Amino acid sequence: MVIRPFARLFALRPVALLACAAVMVSTMSGCRRDDSLKIGYLGTLSGRHSDLGVAGRDGTIFAVEEINRAGGINGKRLELVIRDDEGKAGSAQTAVRELIAAGVAAIVGPMTSSMAMATVPVINGSPVVMISPTVSTGDLSGKDDNFLRIYPTNAQKTRQLAEYARTSLGLSRLAVVYDLSNRSYTDDWRQAFTRQFESLGGTVAPAVSFDASGQTDYLSVARTLLAKKPQGVLILAGAVDAAMLCQQIRKLDTSTALFATEWSSTPELLMHGGTAVEGIVYCQNFIRDDDSTPYVTFCRAFETRFGQLPDFGAVYAYQAVKVTGAGLAKNPAPRGLKGAILGTGTFPGLQGEFTIDRFGDTDRKPFLMTVRQGAFRRVEVP
């Protein structure tokens, strides 16, 4: 299956608002307070990086509706409470406190590493468990706290992309640009990738940074990068910023290899990047062309529900809700949910089983992907 590009607006769309309303109505109508279980969703639903947050929200809604159609959790329907972290630490912390006050048993989210770093101290001061679909910073690994995730850290992906660039492509000098607005993620990626690439005999020029929360002169950034005479550029940014950087780099140079990460591998990269993102290579755990029955069935049902195919944020948010549901079925009390999830260990995923270890971390096999003829496709490495 090839995932085709589709348009997604940064702000909440009317159809999305209706979807949220539909979930709230379906889970609340005709129910007494003890007839439902509340879970929260936290993601960036407004602003520049809202593509991932909106995708996660849609995947969460889809999973909640599916669980409720099947009879809920031990006969109790799920009630979904949605909050926008606005991509800001203060807003995220406020949203988490509101969700805890609302009585949620768990929070699905956040979707970015910077928001996780901001909210984990808040969640650790409560009995509520936070289950992130897509956070991958290594700064939260190996800790016995209330933060769990179903997405692996950056370690394997940085190693695989570095090996591909150095060994398969034979590149010896790279430049890196990273967005400070999600520094927990981008700086973790930058440092790990640099170590891996240089351990293979390559050289990484001093990194260039920018802050997507402000105004960015993409042409100036592109010129600074190319002045370092790299054979390739690794772009650690969200989809829109990565697309804009690719546009400017390609205006100045058509031969430099381009690399990116899963954060930018959303349809907005294709929509805003056009031909400039053709050939860009990135590493992620989401298999876009997977033809397994569970994934294909999910994609068809999701497209019927939302009018578009799911992006990786939706796929992983859906699975995060399923993990939450499995834990709630064993122990619906907030203080017992973490133990129920960690005690289960292995869960059926849309693209194969995955295991959550005693620290709430997980591991999955990464894959190299590229953009070819306006679509995301897998890179076959000999």
TrEMBL record:
Pfam short name (any one): Peripla_BP_6
UniProt-listed InterPro entries: BCAA_transport (IPR051010), Leu-bd (IPR028081), Leu_Ile_Val-bd (IPR000709), Peripla_BP_I (IPR028082)
Record carries keyword Transmembrane helix: no
One example of a Gene Ontology biological process annotation: amino acid transport
Keywords, alphabetical: Amino-acid transport, Lipoprotein, Signal, Transport
PROSITE patterns for this protein: PROKAR_LIPOPROTEIN
The keyword Ligase belongs to this UniProt entry's keyword annotation: no
Signal peptide: 1-21
Leucine-binding protein domain segment(s): 37-372
Family membership: Belongs to the leucine-binding protein family.
Protein name in UniProt: ABC transporter, periplasmic substrate-binding lipoprotein, putative
Organism: Geobacter sulfurreducens (strain ATCC 51573 / DSM 12127 / PCA)
